[in-house]
Amino acid sequence: MSIWSEIRIDYLGDDEQCACIDAWLTDDDCEEGKVIAKVFPERIVYIDNRARVDEYAQEIINEAMKEFKS
Fold first, then answer.
1. Can you give the residue ranges of every domain in the chain?
2. How far from 22 is each of 16, 59, CA to CA, in Å?
């Protein structure tokens, strides 16, 4: 079970070699998403350390890593 209700990959354009992983704690449309990690082709920078052990977050982070490799 994840602490976040939604997590998305937000790419910073084709020239940027970084993807921000944005997350929302609730389903409230007024809630502002927070960056929980930044994914680079060769490394991950965790902004919120809970993302290191959250299964949902890791699933999305791994998806972003795979997209960089393809």
1. 6-69
2. 16, 13
Tokens of 54: 């959250």
Tens digits of per-residue pLDDT, 14-26? 666 889 999 999 9
Residue 37 to residue 69: CA distance in whole angstroms? 18
* CB contact at 8 A, 34 and 56: no
Residue 53 has φ and ψ, to the nearest 5°, of -115, -5
Angle 63-68-70 from CA coordinates, rounded to 5°: 95
pLDDT tens-digit readout, 43-70: 999 999 999 999 999 999 999 999 888 7
- Give the integer Cα–Cα distance in Å for 18 and 33: 18
Please state the pTM of the whole predicted model: 0.88
Q: Which amino acid is at 38?
A: K
